[in-house]
Design brief:
It is a single chain. By secondary structure, the chain is an alpha/beta fold. It has a single domain, classed as Alpha-Beta Barrel (TIM Barrel). 37% of the residues lie in helices and 14% in strands. The chain contains 15 helices and 13 strands. It has an 8-stranded parallel β-barrel with strand order 1-2-3-4-5-7-10-11, surrounded by 6 helices. A hairpin with a 6-residue loop joins strand 12 and strand 13. Bound molecules: beta-D-galactopyranose. Beta-D-galactopyranose binds next to loops.
Length: 470
């Protein structure tokens, strides 16, 4: 249910948002992006759905990981989260109310294939059918992300991403999704930030499944690469009219000063955080020039991989939040570099302690678009967490409005300089379960009270609505 207070306040809030749009520092017009530019909002299954064990859903690695002591801040669980599973209809109505035309969400693999392969869970399939159908009925285009980090637990028991058999499991899952939803869904994102889930989940151990070390990381990275390519091709083969892409996180990297050792450290960090996800998919291989220890990844290559490299995605999903400042630190394994936390640099930050640095998105759009083989870019995530407070039933999140408008100005700047960027998705619709941070971070356009699940539309959402309706 949309809180009545927000609805009745609609005009008043919209007036505020409109006046902000015309203020100099917020001045931005939707028209400047062109009539075909796509405006959306993104979510991810594990972060919003809840209903972790209802109606036949199998457990995912995140259901298990969150139950381990010390993995998640304050021991938060995502068992109910925003309860999108039961409240999807009102949430999609909110998207409509905000005049957002595109909704990106992910499928929970273990909701439709509880053991990862084999038996299908009809209730899970039904849920996604209802989500898709409601979007279409309201004139909202649904975009599916196939994998946003919640691997079925059964597959983890067999080695998960570190086991090459994942290629077969992921193929089965992809082909099922295409068969079930391909009649209505025209835009597909194969994976969300492969380097984030392999880095945090298979090297650092701070995300599910909690594995550590190069011996886990390298096979997981390579298997994610070939799964993206083979599934991308499969979706395209079955649905030639569909647009298929995959999404990466990326951040502009700046050396802490111009000392050569710090400049070299920045180049290595850039290889790890930016080049490593996109270059292999373009047939350029892994950035071993900067990171020689990556050569060990060749152990996981297979002659049959070669034929996969010819595939080109229709688009790349670019996700950017911040920039990183980097310094040389000899004892850090492999990269010999470390990120200088924004909190120590006296710069504006979000609640994640991520620097607010809008030119980062401009730089990354320029760089990614310069790769031969990158045809089109959609910004599939951008947003910010701030310590929102409810005051008399409202959330006056000025900082988020400012963040969005500053980053959007940089997207426009890139577009005006010839970058083929054709869409923008705000992260995210609802405050939700922010991985290892639990519910401590609020990225939503819509505030969620995690006791009552009540939604409150934040001022930033009214700002986005006013911007879209202008
Ligand atoms: C992205 C991720 C999202 C969300 C966001 C904010 O890396 O895809 O799921 O958590 O960051 O941290």
């Amino acid at each position: 249910m949309i809180p009545v207070a927000s609805l009745t306040m609609h005009d008043e809030r919209s007036d505020l948002a409109s006046s902000l749009l015309t203020e100099d520092r917020f001045s931005l017009s939707r028209n400047a992006f062109g009539a075909d530019f796509k405006w959306g909002v993104s979510t991810a299954a594990f972060q919003v759905e809840g209903a972790w064990n209802v109606e036949g859903k199998g457990p995912s690695i995140w259901d298990e990981f969150t139950r381990r002591n010390g993995t998640i801040r304050s021991g938060h669980l995502a068992d109910t989260s925003c309860d999108f599973y039961h409240r999807y209809a009102e949430d999609i109505d909110i998207i409509k109310f905000l005049s957002i035309d595109h909704f990106r969400f992910s499928i929970s693999w273990s909701r439709i294939l509880p053991a990862g392969t084999g038996k299908i869970n009809a209730a899970g399939v039904d849920f996604y059918n209802r989500v898709i159908d409601r979007c279409l009925r309201l004139g909202i285009e649904p975009w599916i992300t196939l994998y946003h980090w919640d691997l079925p637990l059964e597959l983890k028991k067999k080695g998960g991403w570190a086991n090459r058999d994942i290629l077969g499991w992921f193929t089965e899952y992809t082909s099922l999704c295409v068969k079930l939803f391909g009649d209505r869904v025209k835009r597909w994102i194969i994976m969300n930030e492969p380097l984030a889930f392999t880095g945090a989940g298979y090297f650092l151990g701070i995300h599910a499944p909690g594995h550590k070390g190069l011996g886990n990381f390298l096979p997981a990275v390579h298997h994610a690469t070939i799964c993206q390519l083979s599934s991308g091709r499969m979706v395209k083969d079955v649905l030639p009219g569909a647009e298929v892409g995959t999404s990466f996180s990326c951040s502009m990297i700046t050396p802490v000063n111009d000392q050569p050792r710090n400049v070299r450290a920045a180049a290595r960090m850039d290889a790890l955080l930016n080049r490593m996800s996109v270059e292999p998919l373009l047939g350029m291989g892994y950035p071993v020039d900067q990171l020689p220890s990556l050569r060990k990844i060749e152990k996981y290559f297979h002659p049959s991989d070669e034929k996969l490299y010819g595939f080109r995605f229709d688009f790349i999903g670019l996700q950017n939040y911040t920039r990183e400042v980097v310094m040389h630190v000899p004892w850090v394994p492999y990269v010999h570099a470390s990120i200088v936390k924004a909190g120590r640099r006296n710069v504006p930050v979000t609640s994640m302690d991520w620097e607010i640095y809008p030119p980062s998105i401009f730089e990354m759009l320029k760089r990614f678009s310069a790769y031969p083989g990158v045809n089109k870019i959609y910004v599939t995530e951008n947003g910010a967490s701030f310590p929102d407070k409810v005051e008399n039933g409202h959330v006056h999140d000025q900082e988020r409005m400012r963040y969005f408008s500053l980053y959007l100005s940089q997207v426009l700047r890139a577009k005006n300089e010839g970058v083929n960027v054709q869409g923008y998705f705000a992260w995210t619709l609802l405050d939700n379960f922010e991985w290892a941070e639990g519910y401590h971070q609020r990225f939503g356009l819509v505030y969620v009270d995690f006791e009552t699940r009540q939604r409150i539309i934040k001022d930033s959402a009214f700002w986005y609505k006013a911007f879209l309706e202008k």
